[in-house]
C-alpha cells in the first residue's frame, strides 16, 4: 500500500520533470530557431536559400556584397557605431552625476522629480516621432548623427539614471565621507571613490544603453535618409522591387548581432565580480 | 593643533532633536571622549564637527575660527570611522597616501610620509595589499595611519574599536592612547563603551537625549557622578542604586536597609548609590546590616556577591578567594565616605556638607 503510493509519487515527479524539460526545449527552440536560421542563411548562396538542408557550400559572398556598392552597409555600420558610441559617452557621465545626486542628496520634490524622469518614457515613441521630425527639420538637423544622438540620449538617459541609482544606493557612504574629510571635493569623491566602487554597475548600464541605441529603429527610420542611416534601417533596404534579399538581410543581421554577443559576454564577466569587498567592516 | 568649541549647537531632523543646545570647550591637545548610549547624539555631534552634518543652530569653532560654512576638506581634520571607510580599490599605500595626494604631495616625499605613518601602526609589510586582504584589526590600523599621515589639527574617532574582537580592542586602545600622547593632537572620540572612555579620556562628556549630563575627568565622573543616569552608566558592574527615604542625614529603604549619608539639608524621596567595590561582606552581625546571599559569581579577579537587603538587591565585590553558600546570611558594610545620594525627583546628586 505504502509502496505503491511511493511509486506513484515518484512517477508523478518523473512526469513533471519530463514536462518541464519539454517546455524548456520548446522555448529554447522558439528563441534559437530564428538566430540559427539567420546564421545559416547568411552563408548560403541565393540558389540554396529555400533548401531546408544543412549541407550546403558555405560562402562569404553575401558579406562581400553588402559591403560593396550599391549597398555600402559599411556606412550604416559606421553610423550606428558613432551614434551608439557618442550616446553612451555623453549619457553615462551625465546619468552618473544625476543618479549620485538622487542617491545621496536631500532635495525638495525628490520623489516626484525622480518619477518624472522615468515617466518621460511612458509616452509611446510614435506619438513624439513626428514632432521630433518637424523640430529637426526646422533646425536643419535631419539626416545627421547629431539628431540621432540627441533623440537616443532622451531615450537612454532616464533608464541609465534609474539603473545607476540602484547601484549607487547599494554602496556604503562611509568611504565617501572619509574622502571628503581627507580633503576631496565632491567631484573628486565621485571620480576617485564612487565610480571605481560601482564600476561594474556603470559598465552594465553603459552596455545596456549601447544596446538600446544600437537597436533603435523608429527614430532612425524617420529622421534619416542617406547620410546617417543606421544598421537596423539599412537592413530594410534589402527589401527591393526584386523581392526580399534574404541572404543579404541575414548577413547584415549577423553584423548587427556580433557586438551584442561580445558585450553580453563582457557584462557577464563583470557582473559577478563585486568591487566593494573590504571597504567597510 | 587647535581647540574646538561648540556653542549652543543643535541638530534636528523634522520633529526629532538629536543634539540639543550643546556647548562644549575642547582644549588644545585634549583627548575628549563623548560617551553615551546609542541615540544620545554623540555621533551626530562629531559629524557636525567634521562637517558631514549641518547644524540646525549654533556655532562650531576650530582654532577660534567659525567653520560652520566650511566643507570638511577645509577644516583640517582627520576622521576614523566605525567601519573604517577605506577605499576598497586602492592598496594600503594608496589609501594612506590619498590625503597627501589631494594636497599635491608627490612621488618620493609622499612615499616617505606614507611609510612613516605606516611604521607608527606597524603596517609596513602590508603596504601593497588591498583592504579586502586584511583582517579587521589591520584595516583599523590603515584607517589610523590615513588619519595621522598628514598632521591634522583635530582627530575625530567614531567608535573606532567597536568592530574589533575583545583582545584586539584592548591592544588597539593602548595604541590609540600612545599615538595621541605622542602626536599631541586634539582628539574627539565617540564611544558607548565606558571602559574606553575611562581609559582614554582626559575629560569625558557623558551624553543622553542630545544633552551633556556631565563633563569632567574620568576620576570625577566615577567618584562623583552628577546624576542618576551617569551613576548607572559608568562602572561595571554598575553602581547599586536603592530607592528609599532620606531625612536628617539618614537613608532608609523598605525591608530594613539603612545608611548614614552625611547630607543634612535634604529630606524626602531619594536614591542611595554605592559601588560594588565600596561594599564589604563579612560574617553576620559584624557590619551595618545583615542580608542573605542571592548569588555568588566568580569573575576570575574577584567574586561578585549579590545579596538581598530588604527589597533591594546589592552587588558587592569581594576578594577572589571569598566563598559562601547561597541563602546564608552575611553582613554588609558600606564605605560611608563613598556613598552617593541622589534626589529622587530631580535625579541630581546631593553633595555631603
UniProtKB/TrEMBL annotation, chain A:
Its main location: membrane. It is found in: Cell membrane. Pfam families: BPD_transp_1 (PF00528). It is a multi-pass membrane protein. The chain crosses the membrane at residues 21-40, 77-100, 112-134, 146-168, 189-214, 248-267. Keywords: Cell membrane, Membrane, Transmembrane, Transmembrane helix, Transport. The keyword Phosphoprotein does not apply. InterPro entries: BP-dep_ABC_trans_perm, MetI-like. Residues 77-267 form the ABC transmembrane type-1 domain. Belongs to the binding-protein-dependent transport system permease family. This is Carbohydrate ABC transporter permease.
UniProtKB/TrEMBL annotation, chain B:
GO terms for molecular function: ATP binding. It comes from the Bacteria. It comes from Falsiroseomonas oleicola. Pfam families: ABC_tran, TOBE_2. Keywords: ATP-binding, Cell membrane, Membrane, Nucleotide-binding, Translocase. NCBIfam families: PRK11650.1. This is ABC transporter ATP-binding protein. The keyword Nucleus does not apply. The keyword Isomerase does not apply. The lineage of its organism: Bacteria, Pseudomonadati, Pseudomonadota, Alphaproteobacteria, Acetobacterales. Signal peptide: none annotated. Transmembrane segments: none annotated. Residues 4-234 form the ABC transporter domain.
Amino acid at each position: 500500500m505504502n509502496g505503491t503510493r511511493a511509486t506513484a509519487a515518484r512517477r508523478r515527479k518523473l512526469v513533471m520533470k519530463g514536462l518541464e524539460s519539454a517546455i524548456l526545449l520548446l522555448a529554447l527552440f522558439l528563441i534559437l530557431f530564428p538566430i540559427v536560421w539567420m546564421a545559416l542563411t547568411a552563408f548560403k548562396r541565393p540558389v540554396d536559400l529555400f533548401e531546408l538542408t544543412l549541407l550546403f557550400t558555405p560562402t562569404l559572398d553575401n558579406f562581400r556584397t553588402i559591403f560593396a556598392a550599391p549597398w555600402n552597409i559599411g556606412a550604416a555600420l559606421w553610423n550606428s557605431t558613432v551614434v551608439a558610441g557618442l550616446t553612451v559617452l555623453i549619457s553615462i557621465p551625465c546619468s552618473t552625476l544625476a543618479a549620485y545626486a538622487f542617491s545621496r542628496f536631500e532635495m525638495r520634490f525628490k520623489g516626484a522629480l525622480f518619477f518624472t524622469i522615468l515617466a518621460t518614457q511612458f509616452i509611446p515613441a510614435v506619438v513624439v516621432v513626428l514632432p521630433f521630425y518637424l523640430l529637426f527639420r526646422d533646425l536643419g538637423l535631419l539626416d545627421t548623427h547629431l539628431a540621432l544622438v540627441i533623440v537616443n540620449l532622451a531615450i537612454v538617459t532616464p533608464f541609465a539614471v534609474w539603473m545607476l541609482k540602484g547601484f549607487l544606493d547599494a554602496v556604503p557612504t562611509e568611504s565617501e565621507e572619509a574622502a571628503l574629510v581627507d580633503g576631496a571635493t565632491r567631484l573628486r569623491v565621485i571620480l576617485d571613490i564612487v565610480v571605481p566602487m560601482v564600476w561594474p554597475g556603470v559598465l552594465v548600464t553603459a552596455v545596456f544603453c549601447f544596446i538600446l541605441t544600437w537597436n533603435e529603429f523608429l527614430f532612425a527610420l524617420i529622421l534619416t535618409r542617406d547620410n546617417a542611416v543606421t544598421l537596423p534601417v539599412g537592413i530594410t533596404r534589402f527589401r527591393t522591387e526584386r523581392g526580399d534579399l534574404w541572404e543579404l538581410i541575414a548577413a547584415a543581421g549577423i553584423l548587427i548581432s556580433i557586438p551584442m554577443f561580445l558585450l553580453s559576454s563582457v557584462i557577464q564577466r563583470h557582473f559577478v565580480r563585486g568591487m566593494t569587498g573590504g571597504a567597510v567592516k | 593643533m587647535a581647540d574646538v568649541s561648540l556653542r549652543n549647537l543643535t541638530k534636528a531632523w523634522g520633529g526629532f532633536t538629536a543634539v540639543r543646545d550643546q556647548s562644549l570647550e575642547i582644549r588644545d591637545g585634549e583627548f575628549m571622549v563623548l560617551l553615551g548610549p546609542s541615540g544620545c547624539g554623540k555621533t551626530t555631534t562629531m559629524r557636525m564637527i567634521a562637517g558631514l552634518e549641518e547644524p540646525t543652530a549654533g556655532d562650531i569653532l576650530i582654532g577660534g575660527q567659525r567653520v560652520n560654512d566650511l566643507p570638511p576638506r577645509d577644516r583640517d581634520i582627520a576622521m576614523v570611522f566605525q567601519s573604517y571607510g577605506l577605499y576598497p580599490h586602492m592598496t594600503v599605500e594608496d589609501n594612506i597616501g590619498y590625503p597627501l595626494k589631494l594636497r599635491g604631495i608627490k612621488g618620493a616625499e609622499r612615499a616617505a610620509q606614507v611609510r612613516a605613518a605606516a611604521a607608527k601602526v606597524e603596517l609596513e609589510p602590508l603596504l601593497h595589499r588591498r583592504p579586502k586582504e586584511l583582517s579587521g584589526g589591520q584595516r583599523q590600523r590603515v584607517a589610523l595611519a590615513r588619519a595621522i599621515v598628514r598632521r591634522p589639527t583635530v582627530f575625530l574617532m567614531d567608535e573606532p574599536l567597536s568592530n574589533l574582537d575583545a583582545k584586539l580592542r584592548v591592544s588597539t586602545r593602548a595604541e590609540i592612547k600612545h599615538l595621541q600622547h605622542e602626536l599631541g593632537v586634539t582628539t574627539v572620540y565617540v564611544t558607548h563603551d565606558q571602559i574606553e572612555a575611562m581609559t582614554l579620556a582626559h575629560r569625558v562628556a557623558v551624553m543622553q537625549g542630545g544633552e551633556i549630563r556631565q563633563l569632567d575627568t574620568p576620576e570625577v565622573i566615577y567618584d562623583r557622578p552628577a546624576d542618576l543616569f551617569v551613576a548607572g552608566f559608568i562602572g561595571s558592574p554598575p553602581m547599586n542604586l536603592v530607592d528609599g527615604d532620606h531625612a536628617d542625614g539618614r537613608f532608609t529603604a523598605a525591608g530594613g536597609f539603612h545608611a548614614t549619608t552625611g547630607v543634612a539639608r535634604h529630606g524626602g524621596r531619594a536614591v542611595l548609590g554605592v559601588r560594588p567595590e565600596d561594599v564589604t561582606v563579612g560574617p553576620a552581625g559584624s557590619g551595618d546590616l545583615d542580608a542573605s546571599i542571592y548569588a555568588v559569581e566568580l569573575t576570575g579577579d574577584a567574586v561578585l556577591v549579590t545579596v538581598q537587603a530588604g527589597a533591594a538587591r546589592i552587588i558587592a565585590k569581594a576578594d577572589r578567594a571569598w566563598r559562601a553558600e547561597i541563602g546564608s546570611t552575611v553582613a554588609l558594610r558600606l564605605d560611608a565616605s563613598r556613598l552617593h545620594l541622589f534626589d529622587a525627583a530631580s535625579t541630581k546628586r546631593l553633595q555631603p556638607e
